[in-house]
């Protein structure tokens, strides 16, 4: 299979004074074919952008670190800055593997004294705030979602102002609502979401911009699509069917989807998400025309991903049992992100389309099951 190095990615090279993001990647060269080129990836005149900035190795804190994204981001940043420079935090008990991979600490994002101690003791320069209740869980417990998704944002914004931190708070497709243009959805438009998760994310975007303009806080945010990963379990999001479907396909060659077959939503493989986040954190502030950017890689429906899975598992069957609350949420969200600003301003690009996604997810899950079962694993083909 061809090397992924021919695809457009971004790899950090250089020293403390010169940071270059080269359009190449090789992490999954053995898993993903590169004969296809995504139609959403524009042609650029230059093969790299040289970010000249006097950057030492920053010390980083990640909240909500045991969720879908925190561990992957910590792994990537630790490779660049050293293990001891990246502190992973959460309120849950970590596995032994997490404890052995680098520093970990308990962090209650609603306890400002606890957070302040961590910032001071770790000597933090960057703060990544991943702690949040996702869309469907948030709707089932609105008071808790208001605390975790809104009050904690106020806490970390004040920490960023007080300690001059570079602050990243992710946003989401859920930050848009039924009045937003849906195909495509631009960076700046009417938002007005109808879930507490979305309302909280819009609040974070606007408060972050305010703290940037009022106090000079280096606030940054990316609106993530649905993120798909083989490494963590689904976390209660509306797009989580696109993770569950792979587990079910390998378990029993069937899946019951809770969304309509023609529900189109933006999605992204986790490696693209981590790569883009790391790249975005390195961008010099003066190069950013916005504080919150859309990032996109693909959009698909449940029926389209089922068809792609059948290329690998021909007997795979899809049935539907729609959950009205989830369907209503999805119907209010974008069908496709418009991310030209991210591609133009800081050279964002993605590596994985739907064919790559299905191939790598099935391969990774098969390998995990093979290792967990001592080499005895069912593989449907």
Short recap of the structure:
The chain is built from twelve helices and 16 strands.
How is this structure best described in words?
The model is unreliable at 1-54 and 377-381 (pLDDT under 50). The longest helix has 22 residues, at 142-163. Helix 1 (70-81) links the parallel strand 4 and strand 5. The protein has a single domain (4-56, 132-372), classed as NAD(P)-binding Rossmann-like Domain (Rossmann fold, 3-Layer(aba) Sandwich). Helices cover 38% and strands 17% of the residues. It has 381 residues and is an alpha/beta fold. It has helices spanning 70-81, 96-101, 112-122, 135-140, 142-163, 196-215, 241-252, 270-282, 302-310, 324-331, 340-346, 354-372, and strands at residues 11-14, 18-22, 48-52, 60-63, 86-90, 104-106, 126-129, 166-168, 171-172, 218-224, 226-228, 254-257, 265-269, 292-294, 298-300, 317-320. Helix 3 (112-122) runs parallel beside helix 5 (142-163) and helix 7 packs parallel to helix 9 (302-310). It starts with 10 loop residues before the first strand and ends in a 9-residue tail after the last helix.
């Amino acid at each position: 299979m061809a090397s992924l190095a021919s695809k457009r990615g971004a790899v950090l090279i250089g020293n403390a004074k010169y940071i270059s993001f080269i359009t190449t990647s090789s992490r999954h060269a053995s898993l993903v074919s590169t004969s296809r080129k995504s139609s959403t990836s524009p042609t650029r005149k230059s093969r790299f952008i040289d970010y000249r900035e006097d950057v030492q190795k920053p010390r980083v804190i990640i909240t909500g670190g045991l969720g879908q994204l925190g561990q992957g981001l910590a792994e990537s940043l630790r490779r660049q800055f050293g293990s001891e420079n990246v502190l992973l935090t959460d309120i849950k008990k970590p596995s032994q593997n997490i404890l052995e991979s680098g520093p970990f600490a308990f962090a209650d994002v609603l306890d400002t004294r606890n957070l302040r101690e961590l910032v001071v003791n770790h000597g933090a320069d960057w703060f990544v705030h991943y702690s949040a209740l996702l869309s469907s869980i948030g709707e089932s417990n609105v008071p808790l979602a208001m605390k975790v998704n809104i009050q904690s944002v106020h806490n970390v914004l004040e920490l960023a102002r007080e300690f001059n931190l570079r602050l990243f708070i992710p946003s989401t497709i859920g930050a848009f609502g039924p009045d937003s243009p849906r195909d495509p959805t631009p960076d700046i438009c009417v938002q007005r979401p109808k879930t507490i998760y979305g309302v909280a994310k819009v609040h974070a975007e606007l408060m972050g911009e305010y703290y940037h303009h009022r106090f000079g806080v280096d606030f940054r945010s990316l609106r993530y699509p649905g993120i798909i990963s083989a490494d963590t379990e689904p976390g209660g999001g509306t797009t989580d069917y696109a993770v569950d479907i792979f587990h079910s396909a390998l378990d029993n060659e069937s899946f019951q989807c809770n969304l309509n077959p023609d529900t189109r939503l933006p999605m992204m493989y986790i490696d693209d998400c981590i790569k883009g986040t790391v790249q975005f954190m390195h961008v010099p502030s003066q190069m950013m025309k916005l504080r919150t950017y859309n990032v996109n890689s693909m959009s698909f429906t449940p029926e389209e991903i089922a068809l792609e899975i059948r290329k690998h598992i021909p007997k795979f069957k899809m049935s539907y049992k729609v959950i009205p609350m989830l369907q209503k949420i999805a119907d209010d969200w974008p069908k496709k992100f418009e991310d030209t600003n991210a591609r133009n301003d800081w050279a964002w690009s993605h590596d994985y389309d739907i064919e790559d996604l299905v191939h790598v997810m099935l391969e990774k899950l098969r390998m995990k099951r093979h290792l967990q079962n001592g080499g005895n694993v069912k593989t449907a083909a």
